[in-house]
Amino acid sequence: MAKTPVTFTLNDMETALFVDPGANLNDVLRRGAGDLTTKNGCGQGTCGACTVLIDGVPHLSCLTLAESTEGRRIDTTGGLAGGPELHPLQTAFMEGFAAQCGFCTAGMLMAAKALLDKTPNPTREDVVEAISGNLCRCTGYEPIIDAILTAAARMQGRAV
Amino acid sequence: MSSVEFRKDLFADERDDNLKEIGKPTIRQDILGHVTGRTPFYDDHQFDGLLHMRAVRSPHHHAQIRGIDTSAAERMPGVRRVLTAKDVPNNLNTLLSLINFGRDDEPLCAHDKVRFMGETVAWVIADTERQARDAVAAVRVDYNVLPHVLDVEEALQPNAPVVNEVYPNNTFDYNGKYDHQKLRFGDVNKAFAEADHIVEAEYQMSPIEQAPIETCGAIAAPETNDRFVCYTNTQALFFSLGTTSKLLDIASSRLHFIGGTAGGGFGGKVDSIVEPTAVLGAMLTGRPVRFAWDREEEMQVGAPRGGERWRIKDGVMNDGRIIAREFTGFFDSGAYVRLSSYAIVKCTGHIPGPYTIPNVASNIYCVVTNRTPATAMRGFGITAADFAIECHMDRVAETVGMNPIELRILNAYRDGDMKAHRRPAKNTALIECCQVAAGKAAWPISADAAAQSSKVGGGVGERGVIPASVTDEDGKIGDRRAGRSEGTSPSRRGTGKVAAGTRVEAKTEAHMQDPDMALEADRIGHRMGSASTAPPAPAPAATPAPPAPAPVAATPSHPQPTAPVPPAPQVQPSAPVPTPPPAAPEPYQPEQPFQRGLNRPGTSRFTSGFRRR
Questions:
Q1: pLDDT digit string (tens) for B389-398?
Q2: Is the pLDDT of residue B134 over 70?
Q3: Does residue B544 belong to the interface with chain A, where contact is any CB pair within 8 Å?
Q4: What Å distances lie between residue B562 and B60, B68, B132, B157, B596, CA to CA?
Q5: Is residue B395 part of a domain?
Q6: Chain B residues touching residue A77 (CB < 8 angstroms)
Q7: Could B211 and A137 be called an inter-chain contact, meaning their C-beta atoms sit closer than 8 Å?
Q8: Domain spanning A88-155: which CATH class is it, in words?
Q9: Which of B176, B326, B367, B392 is the most buried (most CB within 10 A)?
Q10: CATH no. for residue B197?
Q11: Which CATH number fits the domain that encloses residue B113?
Q12: B140 CA: distance to closest CA in chain A (Å)
């Protein structure tokens, strides 16, 4: 099958790949670029586990054509931590027991990051809305919502 | 931030609160991997030359397989191999055979017929997942559709289709001969006669899919030391290894299973299907093979918690004391028994719930139907029964006009009380749970109820002893399921009384030894007797008509197309059979029946390990 070249910036790294026509971004990130931090839970856009940021906007990578990301900037959980320092969201998730099996966590973190980048002081309703496309079967969501609010407060220098 | 509330005021004298970890919140040891995305789930292991395996699945609930044409699929681009049942070395298993419980009843790949929608009939292995999907669509299967049954009680009717020939009564056979699991504690009928109120109701729980965010899957690959490595998200790693060893007839020492990380399980990842399938693919291609369910397969084929139907009958005094409780339960195991038989044993130990009731009886049926097989899920065997029990408690409270929480406290078990399964209750806490729940909900309870304690009053007098329980002359509680799976005549001993309303056939043949609890023979059909000894025809006019179940597919009579194995007397429905079987298919004969025997521990080559040299 003829391959198509695609170049994008993945977590600040220039990435060039040859992809199958019609390949979805999730497969290309995982099997092509080797970024395994992005998960695949349903392949049909319902669970949100594959959420990545394309130019800062959350997208379901399983429903995104890889070719459509030409020249775009893609952020995944693999690039969330700044070097050895965890992102405040990651710290808050750890401390707040906001992950059990961990399979939805990468998608949750990306959805939360998109929210906090745009809305540094979200209300609880904002958080619920922001992760409404991400399913979690373990936690019951409350610890996740709390962790995102905690991270937002810490990033704004507020006491929790 | 939300936090757990520790009620250290309760049972404080039973606990040391100065422990280092226990009783204190702690951070999960694996959570750093989760929040950085570096936790290695099974699918995060990369292999060069990875092949993708997909299953061809039945579109029918119940159908005979006349033939499978794989030739078109084999010619499609990227296809490496198409596999069918004949490629599975030992294509018959039951999960609990590893602990010598139950008969092998389930193939990894159907060969003679399919018994539920979505059952595997073939596999395709191709270079890409898309090529595998395309080739799956090109496999042609010739089905002869058979009548199916999707309702537990319809499956117990005499004319119901036989779903799985290993269990020709459509019931699991407890101890190889009983069609239900039984519990008797005291004498419920005597207590019902003394009760002020009888409260009866029926409850139906639907199957529930575990729906983990990560679907079931495995990757298997040949290793250089002549072993096969298998990365899997199973919740039962060594169980899956043993099952793979058995199905593929390969020494367990040649299997290297790596797991322990599941993206959610909730019981749905214990069925050991993806692992033997992936290892089979790796064995037959010599390449790394990934076999993963997509979301649709997870929902359709992944085994749920099975549906359960419960009927509960309570004898209650005016003051709220429950003096007798009787259960009839039907577990829908689906087409293969898997763990449902065990769930019922567990459930029987739980009955009558967290209450001390002096007279308890239960009959629970593990019913084989054409639904997706059921398996473990979060307290399976307990949760649905508890739903029925707690709904029933509210119904009882309404009947006697009592505060439902006070009714629970009144009937709650306490430390030292004898449970119906004949073990004393320990560490009970229902009373305290009720008190705390009432407080949280601002639900008023009396000062007397608020003063009760699980540690006071338990085991006093009759509460602490096993009551005289109704038994037969052999000292057993079983209504023998005579004349079916064992091929023996019903015992003629025992009292032999039959409850009113029982069908004539059952009255003649079903010879219940101790009808202390009326078997609902008219509703469940009971499948007793044989063609040679059954009376010419039942006289249904005299019997009260049971509530007519919705006719799903159980036609009044139908061909029973395959002969049972092991051979058992074929019981014909008493109604005449007008239509002969269409085409006589091959009898159900597994190519390599794996007969370990129910009562022969130590004969398993997988537990005894004689294959190792």
A1: 999 999 999 9
A2: yes
A3: no
A4: 17, 19, 33, 18, 23
A5: yes
A6: 35-37
A7: yes
A8: mainly alpha
A9: B367
A10: 3.30.365.10
A11: 3.90.1170.50
A12: 26
On whether residue B575 sits in a domain, the answer given is no
Band of pLDDT at residue B344, cut at 50, 70 and 90:
very high
Q: What residues in B contact A106, CB-CB < 8 Å? A: 37
Smallest CA–CA distance, residue B465 to chain A, in Å, is: 41
Determine the residue among B27, B30, B36 to mutate to test chain A binding: the one whose Cβ has the most chain A Cβ atoms within 10 Å.
B36
Model pLDDT, residue B583: 53
> What is the pLDDT at residue A1?
65
Between B473 and A120, the higher pLDDT residue: A120
The pLDDT score that the predictor gives to residue B3 is 65
pLDDT tens for residues B557-592?
A: 444 444 444 443 344 334 444 444 445 445 444 444
Over residues B432-437, the mean pLDDT reads 97
Whether A3 contacts B5, CB under 8 Å: no
* ipTM associated with this complex: 0.96
B294–chain A Cβ distance below 8 A for any pair: yes
Task: State which residue of chain B sits closest to A145, comparing Cα positions.
Answer: B1
CA distance B479 to B383: 27
Cβ-based neighbour number of residue B239 at 10 Å: 19
* Cross-chain CB nearest to A99 (options B35, B43, B44): B35
The rounded mean pLDDT for chain B is 83
The answer to whether the CB atoms of A137 and B212 lie below 8 A apart is: yes
Q: Are B286 and B431 contained in the same domain?
A: no
Number of domains in chain B: 2
CB B378 within 8 A of CB B267: yes
pLDDT, greater one: B190 or B530 = B190
Contact B212 A42 (CB under 8 A): no
In chain A, what residues touch B2 (CB-CB under 8 Å)? Answer: 142-143, 146
Domain boundary among B246, B265, B299: B299
CA dihedral B169, B172, B176, B178 (to 10 degrees): -70
**Which whole number is the average pLDDT over B402-422?**
97
Ramachandran assignment for B602, one of left (phi > 0), alpha (psi -120 to 50 degrees), beta (any other): left
Q: Looking at this protein, which amino acid is placed at residue B586? A: E
pLDDT > 90: percent of chain B: 70
* B218/B98 same-domain check: yes
Last residue of a domain, one of B259, B277, B299: B299
The distance of A90 to chain B (nearest Cα, Å) reads 5
Which whole number is the average pLDDT over B476-501?
37
**Lowest mean pLDDT segment, chosen from B4-18, B169-183, B403-417:** B4-18
d(CA B261, nearest CA chain A) in Å: 8
Decide if A142 touches B, using CB distance below 8 A. yes
The span from the first CA to the last CA of chain A, in angstroms, equals 55
The verdict on a CB contact (< 8 Å) between A103 and B295 is: no
Residue of B nearest to A44 (CA): B295
Domain boundaries, chain A: 4-79, 88-155
Within this chain, do residues B139 and B275 fall inside the same structural domain, yes or no?
Answer: yes
pTM of the model: 0.83
Report the CATH number of the A4-79 domain: 3.10.20.30
B369 and B275, same domain (yes or no) = no
Helix runs in B222-327, H state only:
237-247, 274-285, 295-300
Judged by a CB distance cut-off of 8 A, whether residue A4 touches chain B is no
Helix (H, G, I), strand (E, B) or coil at B436: helix
Q: Give the number of other Cβ atoms within 10 Å of residue A122's Cβ.
A: 18
Distance in Å from the first CA to the final CA of chain B = 58
Range with lowest mean pLDDT among B31-45, B214-228, B436-450, B481-495: B481-495
**Residue B221 lies in domain:** 44-146+213-299
